[in-house]
Write a structure and sequence with these properties.
The chain has 148 residues and is mainly alpha-helical. The protein is 53% helix and 0% strand. The protein has one domain.
């Protein structure tokens, strides 16, 4: 076999493998990877300021609300499985759309430590890559809105 034929065979196998991945429903792997969609928002937040709301929407809402903006790559396996897993876990931890576990002090600590937003989220979501001043404003606003 020529080198070209071997390379074409490898590319063909990779393409077939990629297509097969698209056919596997995420829920068949685990419910953690199932697409959560955007259920109804059942909680209204009384924000301390429009700035806090804007910063929270930019940095937090994709994973911690029912107002997720799904990027194009969220429909391509296996990346979609990882996106869905992060959203499902984020909504379980706290959810702006249901009022579940909204503790301003805890949110501020997560931001202060650099745990949130997740570092893997930032490269493809520049709006969530807040400056130090914006992080401080968000932390102060979350505490003012939700308490310590």
């Amino acid at each position: 076999m020529t080198r070209k034929r071997i390379l074409l065979g490898i590319v063909g196998i990779l393409v077939i493998g990629f297509v097969v991945l698209q056919l596997i429903p995420a829920s068949a792997i685990s419910s953690r990877y199932a697409a959560p969609g955007n259920p109804e928002v059942t909680y209204t937040i009384q924000w301390d300021s429009a700035e806090t709301e804007q910063l929270a929407r930019a940095a937090c809402f994709d994973c911690h609300s029912h107002e997720t903006n799904y990027p194009w790559y969220a429909n391509i396996a296996p990346v979609s499985w990882l996106v869905n897993k992060d959203i499902n876990e984020g909504r379980r931890e706290m959810n702006f759309s249901t009022g579940d576990d909204l503790e301003g002090g805890d949110m501020a600590r997560q931001i202060q430590r650099g745990d949130m937003p997740l570092p893997i989220y930032l490269p493809l979501h520049p709006e969530a890559n807040l400056t130090e001043a914006q992080k401080q404003a968000l932390m102060d606003g979350l505490i003012a809105t939700f308490g310590r």
